[in-house]
Amino acid sequence: MNITLLFGTETGNSEMLCEDIESEFEGDHDFTISSLADVDPAAMETNTFHVVVCSSYGDGELPASAQPFADKVEKTKPDLTGLRFAIFGLGDSDYETFGEGSHQLADLLVAAGATQIGPRIVHDVQSGDLAEDVAYPWFTERVAEAEAAMEDA
Amino acid sequence: MTRKIAIVGAGPSGCYLAQSLLKLCKGDEPQIDMIDRLPVPYGLVRYGVAADHQGTKAVTRQFARLFERQGVGFVGNLSIGAEGDLTLDALREAYDVVVLAAGLSRDRKLGLEGEDLDGVIGAGTLTRCWNDHPDHADDTVTHGKRVVIVGQGNVAMDVLRILAKGAGEFEGSDLSDTHIDRIAAAGIEAIDIVGRSPAHLAKFDPVMVKEIGKIAGLKFEIADLGLSEGQDDPRLEAVTGLESSDDPRCTVTFRFGWTPTRFVGEGHVTAAHFARADGTETLDIPCDAVISAVGFRADDTLERDALVAAASDIDTGRLAPGLYAAGWFRRGPRGTIPENRTDSQAVAEAIAADLADMPEVDKPGSAALFARFDHLTDYAGWQRIDAHEQASAGEGRVRRKLADRAEMLKLALKAMETTP
After folding, report:
1. Beta strand pairing call for B268-275 and B259-266
2. pLDDT on residue A152
3. How many domains would you assign to chain A?
4. Which residues of A touch B211 (CB under 8 A)?
5. Which helix (H) or strand (E) holds B35?
């Protein structure tokens, strides 16, 4: 399957997780990795499964590299019908706005017509688990669901 | 031929720079060595980021990969500069490229009367003490019952939060009991945090103030809100949204629009004096300690001012052929870790572009350093320190930092001595 890994990051942790997912599963799929800042929402292809990894910043705001993407979606209102995506959050439960960034981004994509595959989960930096250990099984499940959904379509 | 690049300062800007350079030079990676004057890497993340912000410190996982998977070398316990182990010129002899990412580690002075009184201390120094920096183990103040914090940026908020927390509120941090006990023993009853700007223009991020609002047992007083009348700003909302405890042990007062004028006392500070910018009003706060959090400057070891003044293109980090600056050392004491990540990426692009035109000379790199000095430490040495610190963590703490340089070196140099 064609999979585009998109990261929304401030400090680089989301980017690193995208790279980890690519290395872990690189034999199984064709991966492209991109910063959300470099993505034109109107040009996202429906035959590609989009997997987003996004942190939060400040008081539950979108991280810097996700901000221009969100602005474009809000401004140009692209029709993302048929686009399938899954989203994984990185967060810090010390803050009340835990996981707000990925939450906002998921809402934005769904509002633009895209279909979210499976649940959004948020890795908590306070948990002691490594983000990749939480993300790999989540990713495997989402890919299976996306494959089934795309075959049906 | 493999290029040799030395980055002076293994803090976040230097690490991001190395990360970015390796990406830009994929397929023809340079040999990068991160040099630090301490036997441990990560600079500001280890010694500047507050002990109870472990989520922020977790960025070191990214940096560890540089050393563990991406072939970057760590050369610890090596000071660069005229007064150091090795001059900058000598280092440049050994490498194709040298990048100075040593940060700005000194507190900016206010230049006021009474600043040298006992009980007056810079926030950076205090933060490094609380973070068990080996050069600042004893650089603290006896806090007394009344503390004044000058400045309202995020560093000031870090200091306020750690002073205001109860002894039981450091779960999951790596603040040592020595510091917690010392703060608790002072029994602080009043903290005034005083800034030059009105609330709606203050330097702090609102989330930092909200975090302070979650501490138990505090009473909040917010003065000078008149200066922000009619304003609508998240910073204003954050301070006015602070809720006081019914049974407070300490009162935290936010004061806005005051410029410090002098600190008074006989030997030890007893009051901090402020005035309105237009001189219309003055404010004297009796206190036992003053912590100034008004920015940072360079220590003089690398003669930063002269280098920056002579820089060929400081905006891209180019100081001279083969010599660059990154992070705070380049841009001055502005911007958070993420902003300096972006900055380091830009400097890495300049270096990658210049590498193409650089003459090919076979530079020795770290081999020259290890041949010349026998006190240098490596990444494996840091891993031994790291493992020791984590294994000896107290109850509810993630690590117990070694604050003594000799103890650090004992661990860091241990296996190197026995390696044939």
Report:
1. antiparallel
2. 79
3. 1
4. 94-95
5. strand B31-35
Among the partner residues A11, A59, A96, nearest to B59 by beta-carbon distance: A11
Q: How far apart are CA B51 and CA B45, in angstroms?
A: 10
ipTM: 0.91
Q: Sheet containing B289-292: which strands, arranged edge to edge?
A: B120-122, B289-292, B146-150, B190-194, B250-255, B218-222
Neighbours of B173 (CB within 10 A): 20
CATH number, domain at A131? 3.40.50.360
Comparing alpha-carbon positions, the chain A residue that sits nearest to B212 is A95
Q: In what order do the strands lie in the sheet with B282-286?
A: B259-266, B268-275, B282-286
How large is the angle between the packed helices B154-164 and B206-213, nearest 10 degrees?
Answer: 10
pTM of the model: 0.94
Distance between CA atoms of residues B353 and B102, nearest Å? 23
Residues pairing with B269 in the sheet: B265
Pairing of the two strands B318-320 and B120-122: unpaired
A92 CB within 8 Å of a chain B CB: yes
* Residues of chain B neighbouring A97 (CB-CB closer than 8 A): 207
**Cα separation, B52 vs B397, whole angstroms:** 10
Phi–psi pair at A90, nearest 5 degrees = -120, 130
**Pairwise CB contact (< 8 Å): B338 & A64:** yes
DSSP symbols for B7-31: EE--SHHHHHHHHHHHHHTTTS--E
Per residue in B376-412, pLDDT (tens digit) is 999 999 999 999 999 999 999 999 999 999 999 999 9
Please give, rounded to a whole number of angstroms, the shortest distance from the CA of B136 to a CA of chain A: 28
Minimal Cβ distance to A16: which of B62, B207, B338: B62
Share of chain A above pLDDT 70, in %: 99
Record: contact A10-B338, CB cut-off 8 A: yes
Read off the pLDDT of each residue in B356-385 and give the average, rounded to a whole number.
95
Assess contact for B157 and B307: CB atoms under 8 A.
no
Residue A125 has its nearest CB partner, among B55, B65, B206, at: B55
Is B26 in CB contact (< 8 Å) with chain A? no
Domain with A39, as residue range(s), is 2-152
Q: Which of A12, A94, A96 sits opposite B62 (nearest CB)?
A: A12
